[in-house]
Amino acid sequence: MSGCTDEFDVYSSYTSHMSRCHKNQAVINVSYLQRDDVCEDNTNCSDSECSSSDDSEENVYTRHIALFLLKLQESCMLPCSTIQTIVDGMKEIVTLANKSTLEKVNNVCTSNNICPDIHKHLIAAASDNVFDNAFSELETDWKRKQYYKENCHFVEPQTIRYNPENPLVTDSFQYISLLDSLRVLLQNKDILSQILAPVESKPHIVSSFSDGVIYQQHPIYQAHPKALQLVLYADEFDVVNPLGVHASVHKILAFYFTIANISRHLQSKKDVIQLLALCNSSDVKSHGLKAVADIIFDDIQVLEQQGIEVPDSKEQLYGSVVYIVGDNLNSHMIGGFNGSFGPKVVCLCRWNRIIFWPSLLHDPLYKTLFFYF
After folding, report:
1. How far is residue 175 from each of residues 204, 254, 255, 299, measured CA to CA in Å?
2. Residue 228 CA from chain centroid, whole number
């Protein structure tokens, strides 16, 4: 803009500035720039995330209604019963609107003495309700789930037993294939473009993991600079009232992952964090994390050694886990360290405050593996 020296990193700030200070100037189309809403949510990727080989008018309406209902369920957190009420109401409104349209078309044809053949064709065209097929496919919760599985990029969870060799031990956990999830993510062109064309780092500034020494010395990233950088995260949550009497009974340990190759402002967004595994915390206390770690490690080995194919390309994309994040309790549990809390213990290890504070002032005693077990 001539005479204007303002610069903006956020598109909404740029448009606000244009509307305030340059009302007579056209807003530049920045659709080619990196967007702030890569995969805004799992239902917002529309055609790329939920597509059908048949692009007829009926299927287009069905797809958009399905995405709308999925967004209400997943983003707005509406229960299935409320979704069902909305579907029933929409179906009734569309039926009444279609009936009213038929009556109006019929009255206009009759009052204007329209030719019977044309009259018949107009009534047939007005009777062709494109919403009928959509509501017939999405009228129940079961049908909606089947539609999502068949038409959207759905990764089926796997039931994995902790001890498959012992038929008496039936405890299991749910695992969502890491490789399949990555294949689905890479079908999103925005995410794939950021992975294949990473932002160059500034010299002498450590702004991400790829600027550190560990990354530079890692054999996978030395051989494949564009390899996927996976970040694992573990946390526990209760599926019931955490203040209730059954709080600890239904506690779930969840594992997630995200890709550190994408822009930093997107890495912590809920919509790009993918679920990896769900385990009952009581089962983890009984059987440990070995079974969970083994199946995750198997997928990581395939990713490191064989890689996965990039969509619309013969190129293989490799990757590895760069680090695991979590709160103190889960981080120590994954590492096999002491995970108990106490007012006299510092940093969840065997250091206590009696020897900790004097050592800071006089003769520091460095921690060893002995203090963690």
Report:
1. 40, 10, 9, 11
2. 16
How many domains is the chain partitioned into structurally? 2
Place of tokens 């490690």: 297
Q: What would the pLDDT profile of 250-264 be if each residue is shown by its tens digit?
A: 889 999 999 988 887
Whether 216 and 80 share a structural domain: no
**Is residue 346 in some structural domain?**
no
Residue 291 CB partners (closer than 8 Å, separation 6+): 160, 161, 162, 163, 173
Q: Does 321 lie in the same domain as 180?
A: yes
Domain assignment present for 105: yes
Q: Could you report the per-residue pLDDT of 128-173, keeping only the tens digit for each? A: 777 887 888 898 999 999 999 888 888 899 999 998 888 888 899 9
Domain of residue 134 covers 54-151
Beta-strand ranges (E) seen in the chain are 158-161, 172-175, 228-238, 251-259, 274-280, 308-309, 316-317, 319-326
- pTM metric for this prediction: 0.69
Does residue 315 belong to any structural domain of this protein? yes
